[in-house]
Amino acid sequence: MLAQAPRDSIKNAKKIVVKVGTSSLTHASGKLNLNQIDSLAREIADIHHSGIEIILVSSGAIAAGLGKLGLRKSDISLSDKQAMAAIGQNILMHMYRKMFSEYGIEIGQILLTKEDFDSPERSALCKGTLDALFRYEVLPIINENDAVAVAEIKVGDNDTLSALVCNIIGADLLIILSDIDGLYEDDPKENPQARLIHQVTTLDEAVRALAKDTDNDMATGGMGTKISAIEIAMKTRTKTVIANGREKHILRDILSGKIVGTYFDL
């Protein structure tokens, strides 16, 4: 079911997971967009300083490695992609550390695989680590451990990863930042008249039929993976907003209850 309704519950969120996609962190060339990263860091820092527990699930490591070496994702093998992740993760975290430090925030990196969610013991350890980082007022930055993960232990995309993190910590709100404004009634690239759906209250077949896969060769998930992630987040009653990560003050607008993106109140 599609609906228009107030977003009052968002204003009361105390535990938030923000997932940012590769397209929101990089230029078309594949190199890191420093202005975008700084803008994201400034908004997250402000939320953090307000007392809200916030986690950043960040894509972009492979893209950063590729950009550093002037390669394209389609040009390289799986082992090369894992090597790019090892190179790029260091680049990405260096930039995050530099920019968050400007706003008085220490960061802590956590790299996860599917095994960390499949095992109750490992999930409990992950939760314990995150709780400790919150106590020390350190911002957790999470990514999949792409440098070593093989098919059997890969989560596969960071939309799903962010939803699984929501399950572990019992998040109130998941914000998925992408290169699209939200869920549309039709593909806006093919139909410029397509209308943005501001609120969804039921994930039925009509909603699933609207999801499209990404055509961005630097990314790993489209609207289909986002809908699947929302279904995972529903298990712990986490609300979700999908919005455009390139919009100025997008996180502030979402948390103030402004009607931006698509709000999944399920």
Task: Outline the structure in words.
There is one protein chain. The chain has 266 residues and is α/β, with parallel strands linked by helices. The protein has helices at 8-11, 34-49, 61-69, 78-101, 115-118, 120-135, 158-169, 205-208, 223-233, 250-255; strands at 15-20, 53-58, 107-112, 139-144, 173-178, 199-200, 239-244, 262-264. It contains ten helices and eight strands. β1, α2 (34-49) and β2 (53-58) form a beta-alpha-beta unit. α7 (158-169) packs parallel to α9 (223-233). It is globular and about 40 Å long.
Looking at the structure, what is the overall shape?
globular
Q: What sequence of helices (H) and strands (E) makes up the elements?
A: HEHEHHEHHEHEEHHEHE
Number of domains: 1
**Fraction of helical residues:** 25-40%
Identify the strand order in the major beta sheet.
3-4-2-1-5-7-8-6
* Oligomerization category of the chains in this entry: single chain
Which stretches of 5+ consecutive residues score pLDDT under 50? Answer: 216-220
CATH architecture annotation name? 3-Layer(aba) Sandwich
Amount of beta strand: 15-25%
Question: What are the key terms here?
Answer:
40% helix; alpha/beta; 8 strands; Carbamate kinase; 10 helices
Topology at a glance:
Elements: H1 8-11, E1 15-20, H2 34-49, E2 53-58, H3 61-69, H4 78-101, E3 107-112, H5 115-118, H6 120-135, E4 139-144, H7 158-169, E5 173-178, E6 199-200, H8 205-208, H9 223-233, E7 239-244, H10 250-255, E8 262-264
